[in-house]
Write a structure and sequence with these properties.
alpha+beta; 3 helices; Calcium binding
Amino acid sequence: MASKRNAALEAMIEEATVDAYGDDEQLTGLFTMLEEHLAVPFTTTVLGMEAVVQKVDLTADSIVAVCARGRHRQKIDLLDLPLPTPAPDGADWIDAYRYWAGR
């Protein structure tokens, strides 16, 4: 089953990066797919506290979730963001990003 899942993730990465040259353009392609497909806002737990993921954002070298709790805001790398159960629609793009980043 893992190989089927990996093949699906690789197909998603290929879709997101088809015209990309280099890691920077690939990262931008994955960010674009996340921005289009990830259902935000959604609630998750960060360091034992409930927080709302308001949006995703692109930094120089990663994709981050912009999280809010009350008046406080913090960016958390998607590689480190705990996902709720059930995961929000489009969370498979987070899986694809994580797979791409770990290659």
